[in-house]
């Protein structure tokens, strides 16, 4: 368009120069005509002096010549006037063409500006929808992680309950065995009463056995303290392992997020390269936008490099965490072996206590102790059941909260889908309106501009379709998370 305007301006300048030349020639014609009349008059006078007899013939010839010259001059004037009128018509036509081309250029600039504004609005809406979908995905992942943690704690409480029930059954078995031992001891006591002559000797033996029992009880208490310390250490190590597993899960999620960001950045790089190639083929006014897009491409490449570095760092952290978990597992195995040894020692001490407890007083004391222990275990069981019920209630409440959040996520997903559908419909309506406007504006012998606007409308509709296709996998991922 600018080249055509430049050519039309050059042709206008040439036509104006020609018109000025014609005007100068037409201004010179009356002077030449007057000069010719003077020359003819002088010739007439010169011919009158030498030949007075031929005056009538010379007058006739001079009149004929002057008439012919006047006719020729008039013809030349008419031709010059016709040329001048044609030149004025051509100048007016060229001015009209110039105005028409300026109007065309103005309309095309307005259309391109409107299309750019519409594309920016659509891009901003798509970015808002994408940010909202990413936020919802992060919330859903957090809720899923919390649900898994709750399930893990519930399984741990169930396992503890099973262990406590097994311990209670063991205690009941031990009580039964001790009841049988008591019965045997009662029979032996009857025999001892029959043998009352041996009472002082037996009292001395009982005293020695009581001392041995006290020593064995001290050993048992020490062994129980060691066992409790080892169990506490084991629980601390298990908590450490759980925290390490959670950190591994977080690192894996970060790595997955980094990979998704890398894929998104590569997609945006491809789109920016396509937009740059498209904008490089357009007019010189779009060079600023190309530079801006190139800057965005560089920034996205820098972000891609950062994401790769963060993914590599997360992988290194995962490797270090795995090594730490391996070390913790070996430590736990060592502690378990120590606990088994301590338990074996406690079993030996308990066996010694059973062997040493032959008198009635010691057995009664042990029975009372065991009964108190059973009562304590029953209290522990009751507390465990209460804590289990409370945890079950908390789990039910939290599952309800999770279900509510899932419902909210589904509603948000439906709202985003509706917004995307409405945006696509609006874009289709805008594209149809722009096509109709371009066809109505440029149908009178201006097919080039119409094709350009139609191609721009097609490109805008294609970009809208691409945006919708990119938004569909986000909605599917929200469905799977829900």
TrEMBL record:
Keywords, in A-Z order: Coiled coil
UniProt entry tagged with the keyword Coiled coil: yes
InterPro entries in the record: WIT1/WIT2, WIT1_2_N
Statement: the UniProt record of this protein carries the keyword Coiled coil: yes
Coiled coil region boundaries: 199-352, 406-433
Domain WIT1/2 N-terminal helical bundle: 1-35
Origin species: Populus deltoides
Name of the protein in its database record: WIT1/2 N-terminal helical bundle domain-containing protein
Domain of life of the organism encoding this protein: Eukaryota
PANTHER family per record: WPP DOMAIN-INTERACTING TAIL-ANCHORED PROTEIN 1 (PTHR35705), WPP DOMAIN-INTERACTING TAIL-ANCHORED PROTEIN 2 (PTHR35705:SF2)
């Amino acid at each position: 368009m600018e080249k055509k305007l430049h050519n039309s301006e050059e042709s206008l300048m040439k036509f104006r120069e020609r018109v000025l030349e014609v005007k100068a020639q037409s201004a010179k014609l009356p002077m030449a005509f007057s000069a010719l009349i003077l020359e003819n008059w002088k010739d007439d006078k010169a011919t009158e002096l030498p030949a007075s007899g031929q005056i009538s013939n010379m007058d006739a010839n001079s009149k004929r010549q002057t008439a012919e010259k006047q006719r020729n001059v008039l013809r030349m004037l008419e031709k010059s006037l016709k040329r001048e009128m044609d030149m004025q018509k051509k100048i007016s036509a060229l001015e009209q063409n110039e105005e028409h081309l300026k109007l065309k250029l103005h309309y095309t600039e307005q259309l391109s500006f409107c299309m750019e504004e519409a594309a920016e609005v659509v891009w901003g809406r798509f970015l808002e929808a994408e940010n909202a979908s990413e936020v919802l995905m992060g919330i859903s992942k957090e809720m899923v992680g919390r649900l898994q943690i709750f399930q893990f704690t519930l399984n741990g409480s169930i396992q503890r309950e099973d262990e406590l029930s097994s311990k209670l059954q063991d205690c009941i078995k031990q009580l039964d065995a001790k009841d049988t031992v008591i019965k045997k001891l009662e029979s032996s006591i009857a025999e001892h009463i029959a043998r009352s002559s041996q009472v002082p000797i037996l009292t001395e033996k009982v005293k020695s056995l009581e001392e041995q029992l006290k020593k064995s009880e001290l050993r048992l208490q020490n062994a129980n303290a060691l066992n409790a310390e080892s169990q506490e250490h084991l629980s601390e190590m298990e908590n450490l392992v759980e925290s390490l597993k959670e950190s591994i899960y977080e690192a894996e999620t970060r790595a997955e997020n980094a990979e998704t960001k890398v894929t998104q950045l590569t997609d945006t790089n491809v789109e920016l390269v396509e937009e740059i190639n498209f904008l490089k083929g357009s007019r010189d006014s779009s060079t600023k936008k190309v530079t801006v897009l190139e800057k965005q491409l560089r920034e996205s490449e820098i972000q891609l490099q950062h994401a790769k570095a963060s993914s590599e760092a997360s992988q290194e952290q995962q490797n270090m965490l795995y090594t730490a978990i391996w070390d913790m597992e070996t430590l736990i195995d060592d502690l378990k072996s120590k606990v088994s040894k301590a338990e074996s020692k406690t079993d030996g001490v308990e066996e010694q206590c059973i062997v040493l407890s032959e008198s009635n007083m010691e057995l009664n004391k042990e029975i009372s102790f065991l009964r108190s222990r059973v009562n304590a275990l029953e209290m522990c069981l009751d507390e465990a059941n209460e804590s289990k019920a409370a945890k079950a209630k908390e789990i039910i409440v939290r599952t309800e909260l999770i279900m509510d959040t899932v419902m909210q996520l589904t509603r948000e997903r439906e709202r985003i889908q509706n917004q995307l559908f409405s945006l696509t419909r609006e874009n289709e309506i805008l594209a149809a309106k722009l096509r109709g406007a371009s066809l109505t504006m440029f149908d009178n012998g201006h097919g080039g501009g119409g094709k350009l606007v139609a191609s721009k409308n097609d490109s805008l509709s294609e970009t809208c379709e691409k945006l919708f296709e990119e938004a569909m996998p986000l909605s599917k991922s929200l469905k799977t998370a829900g």
